[in-house]
Structure prediction request, 292 residues.
Amino acid sequence: MRSRGRGTSVFGVVGELLITAGVVVLLYVVWQLWVGDAIQGAQNNAAGAELSQEWDSLPVPEPTPVEEEAEAAAPVIADEPSDGELFGVMRIPRFGEDYAVPMAGGVSRAVTLDPIGIGHYPGTPMPGDIGNVALAAHRTTYGAPFNRIAELQLGDAIVIETSDGWYTYRFRTLEYVTPSQVDVLDAVPQLSATPDGERYLTMTSCSPMFSLAERIVAYSVFDSFQPRADGPPAALEGTA
Amino acid sequence: MMYAALWRILPGPWWVRVLILVVLLTAVLYGLFVFAFPYISEIVNPQEVTIE
Prediction:
């Protein structure tokens, strides 16, 4: 080959560059579909587990003596976190027993959604409070915390762990909406005019996957609160 | 060409060259997966998940 002169070798190099570019594009697809989310998903889960352990090591107040057996503990309502401030860890047994994604204030991609995981819509209530707790996270890329949101089934536990305890919600239903349908974030989803004193949780993500066209919305209702001192709720049994 | 030249430049017996190439390849893959692709993905495939 070398003896055939400069022209051939230039074409040879160009050819090799093109082949290399093709391989890199294929690698990008592999990364986008499988590897990237696995890497950041594992990082997210590790960060969440670490946060959880950190809270475990904090001194906890004595378990409140139960005066009436039937009465469940009133949920502690935390202050709203600032942009990018960690406040919770989301655990969803349906998404795997090691699923533990950090949650922070705000829903901007740069501060919260890309680097941390799940974001809390500013101005919506905090977990356990009356009204609609609204959260957002990626469904693809950046660890894809809500990757399997469409697999949720009626009654699935959605648990938010904070330094105060565990807030368990139960999944009810999915909905697909346009990106501008803000009333899914209302105190009562889509029924802003009729506050009913109930506690809801709304998770939004993109739909279809890898698209900007629509949003997928998962609604859940509040089930119970378990203070830190009482240990993890039964809904999390068998998870890490 | 390019890759043939790379093979010639590398020192040592063939198995040392293969070893060096494997290390190089791993480094390139790491760079792509951890730095290059996340950066590119923001440009070619914007993901919006919020309702506003």
